[in-house]
Amino acid sequence: MSKVIGFEYSLKDANSGEQLDSNVGAAPLEFVSGKGQIIAGLETKLVEMSENESADVMVQPADAYGEYNEEAMQTLPKEQFAGIELAEGMTLYGQGEQGETVQVTVKSFTDSDVTIDYNHPMAGKTLMFSVTIKSLRDATEEEIQTGVVGGMAAMGGCCGGGSHGESEGSCCSSEGGHDHGHSHGGGGCGCH
Length: 192
Hints:
Helix content: 10-25%
Structural class: mainly beta
Number of helices: 4
Distance between the termini: 37 Å
Oligomer: single chain
């Protein structure tokens, strides 16, 4: 039976100790179990926990965002990024070949070209989550069917609720909150 699990987390790079993300003090992150909405290595532990239970969960790259692939780069004409104020290291959300949402990082850019990195920003990192289960219940039939908590699609603008709708191209709403539990500030949309 799928569960709806709401949890609070803080996330560090297990090797460097760098704080990567946290939702402590904000609304818990809710997801429907068994839908692949968060990384496998974290979900495996969360589904075993009880309400109000806390734990530290170490997740290896293979169960998180994979190893870093040096070849996962692409150089595109700068006009594909019209309307986006580019900065090295910024995160963009676009559409992949199968229509899926992809998250890319701007590695570098010139007056004519932009080099983007398809590796997830946390690829190759061993992740340490400190988590607390805040809510736990059985999923409804609709939630099991749709994978959406509450049965309604989350409202929000382009790229996860940001106001980046001015750029042309394939504007997408980020699924960042569902597929890993770390919301990354998106700079814009329209990259393919």
